[in-house]
Amino acid sequence: MQADPIRAPARAQDLTLRHRVKDYRAGDLERRYARLDVEEDFFINYGFVTSALHERMHPRPDACAPAQGAPPWPAARREHAQLLLEFIRERGSVHPREVDEYFSHGKVKNYWGGSSNATTHLMDAMHYRGLLRVVRRDGGIRIYAERQHGPGPADQAACREQLDVLVDAAIRIYAPLPARCLSFLVRRMRYAVPQWLGEVKGALERAKQRLSRARVEGVDWFWPADLDAARSMPQETVRLLAPFDPVVWDRARFELLWGWVYRFEAYTPAPKRKRGYYALPLLWRDRVIGWGNLAVKDGDLTSEFGYVASHPPRERAFKRELAAELDRMRAFLGLDCPVIAARGKTG
């Protein structure tokens, strides 16, 4: 489950889960995290994975986290990490501010070009390596505790078996996949298991042998062999999807399936945005036909929509189902006020 900190109107992980967990409410994952069999970790992206998948990715070598580059840790960082680990071990769990107050390692430049506390930066790296785990969040801030892992696979055959399980898990989330997208997905295993980087190419070839495939209009598509690919009638439902929802995550596949370009524009300068700051893909039946921008203002849910066809579908069913989806969004957000719907945009 990919995670993202932006709330517009809720975090991406919550927006994704609301379609898949009955009666899910914004923030449930964070509130229940400590009681669930999940871990925060870097898999295909940073987010939440089952404890079983988490164990299969560790122990990782002393490489840096993906956002910090690939080189191994220098001796000074290993020394600092050991001191920090001893400090956390004594206290059980720690807030980054508590660590920084104790060590005062100074400042370092982070991935986004800003400045982060060096201790926080180091804890991110230790978390990625598997020395620490996130036990909970306080106000969105990770609270860390020590993490210990076993030795990992003993031989090459066991290593490949572990890697195949991880690859299959990723494919099951995002399938069906065009050949190019399948290759892109499997190559991202270099982040999940940098210790097995040399095995990733072979893992892709083995996956292609296990998967079902079909050639459609010159494109080879792949999906798990036990997945029922028979076409069923689409549901008469409108859904507003998160920008990182598995349905739309792969932008190349998105364009193949629905014939238009969707981009995540939260980090795009406002004058250059085409869809909006946090445009949510709008799924009607089995087609993504447009996008919506939602916000909570003074306790009200406001909405603005755009459509690829320059206008919304004309069926009464669409209007009814769009209203129902906004009602579900209000319940998900815990709002008690009526929906305020802005005029739709076209494009």
Task: Describe the model.
The two termini are 30 Å apart. Residues 339-343 have low confidence and may be disordered. By secondary structure, the protein is of the alpha+beta class. It folds into three domains: 60-146, Orthogonal Bundle (Arc Repressor Mutant, subunit A), CATH 1.10.10.10; 156-223; 238-346. The protein has helices at 12-17, 28-32, 51-56, 75-91, 96-103, 118-129, 156-174, 179-187, 189-192, 200-210, 251-258, 316-333, and strands at 38-42, 46-50, 93-94, 107-109, 115-117, 132-138, 141-146, 177-178, 212-216, 219-223, 238-240, 280-284, 287-297, 300-307, 340-341, 345-346. The chain contains twelve helices and 16 strands. Helix content is 35%, strand content 21%. Strands 11, 12, 13, 14, 15 and 16 form a six-stranded mixed sheet that branches. A three-stranded antiparallel sheet has the order 3-7-6. A three-stranded antiparallel sheet has the order 8-10-9.
What features would you highlight for this structure?
alpha+beta; 3-stranded antiparallel beta sheet; 3 domains; 12 helices; 6-stranded mixed beta sheet; globular; 347 residues; 21% strand; 35% helix; Arc Repressor Mutant, subunit A
**Average pLDDT figure:** 91
Q: Given the helix and strand composition, which structural class is it?
A: alpha+beta
| Count of discrete domains | 3
Q: Determine the strand fraction and express it as a percent band.
A: 15-25%
Q: Helix segment count?
A: 12
Considering DSSP H and I runs of 4 or more, what fraction of the residues is helical? 25-40%
Provide the gyration radius in Å. 22 Å
- Low-confidence sequence ranges: 339-343
Span from first to last CA? 30 Å
Which word captures the global form? globular
